[in-house]
Amino acid sequence: MVNLSAVTSFMLPVLVLITLSSMSFNTNMIAARHLLETSLPEIPTLPKPELPPLPKLDLPKPKLPELPKPKLPELPKPTLPELPKPELPKIPELPSFPHLPDLPKPTLPTFPSLPKDIPTHSNPNP
């Protein structure tokens, strides 16, 4: 037989834990709703700092003296020697294909022709 005191000693803490967890879950929902409904305090905005204008400096542009361009001696254009044309071996010719005699065309049997006027059935319901 089952010992009744052992079952109750096991079930009582389980039931207490379930009860406490359901109670704490409800308080979490209330706290979350409270956080959603409360407004955040406004944070004051600081003015943007402005820098004083910097003085403009007018510097004279440096002038470089013009250098004389050196004269290059004219070089003769190089000439390339002509390349010799290679001598290619002659390609052997294939022998001509033998001529076959013409074969006579076979004659096909003629099919009987159908009459042009085909009789039709006059009764609409056959």
Structural key phrases:
126 residues, mainly alpha, 1 helix, 0% strand, flat, transmembrane helix, transmembrane, PELPK1_2, membrane
Number of helices: 1
Overall radius of gyration: 57 Å
Shape: flat
Sequence of secondary-structure elements: H
Low-confidence stretches: none
Oligomerization status of the protein chains: single chain
Total beta-strand segments: 0
Strand content: under 5%
- Amino- and carboxy-terminal Cα gap: 93 Å
Structural class computed from helices and strand pairing: mainly alpha
Largest sheet: none
Q: Provide the residue-averaged pLDDT.
A: 82
The share of residues in helices is 25-40%
Structure explained in plain terms:
This protein has 126 residues and is mainly α. It is built from one helix and no strands. The protein has one helix spanning 4-37. The longest helix is centred in the N-terminal third of the chain and has 34 residues, at 4-37. The two termini are 93 Å apart. The model has no long low-confidence stretch (mean pLDDT 82).
